[in-house]
Amino acid sequence: MGKANFIYIGPNVPQIGLKRNTLYRGNQPPPKLAELMKKKPVLSALFVSTAALAQAERSLNIKGAVENTAQKEMAEIMKTLTR
Fold first, then answer.
1. Cys-Cys with 15: which of 22, 27, 81, 83 at CB 3.0–4.6 Å?
2. In Å, how far are 2, 4, 8, 74 from 12, measured between CA atoms?
3. pLDDT digits over 16-65, tens only?
4. DSSP-derived 3-state class of residue 7
5. Closest by Cα among 16, 26, 76, 75 to 47
6. Cα angle at 16 between 14 and 19, to 5 degrees?
């Protein structure tokens, strides 16, 4: 069985090399995203399997959905990175 493919669905964060809709192979997020996920576990909702992509994209626009909350958290993190 091959490694799974995952897609980052959060906002672009050039300060740490994250770009929306980037495809990653394997079951681990990029190191910088993994570091952020340790501090803010909700961010893991922005790193989805290709099979779950359509539902996750819809959930980004649903207030209170995990993906929506994660996107807001990432926006707050981005503010601290640009200071």
1. 81
2. 28, 22, 9, 9
3. 888 999 998 877 777 877 887 888 888 889 988 889 999 999 999 999 99
4. strand
5. 26
6. 50
Q: Give the pLDDT band (50/70/90) at residue 1.
A: very low
DSSP 3-state of 77: helix
CA distances from 22 to 14, 80, 81, 83 (A): 13, 23, 20, 25
Neighbours of 9 (CB within 10 A): 21
Strand partners, 25: 5
Query: The tokens of 73 are what?
Result: 């958290």
Name the residue ranges covered by the structural domains of the chain: 5-81
Tokens of 47: 């790193």
Which amino acid belongs to residue 7? Answer: I
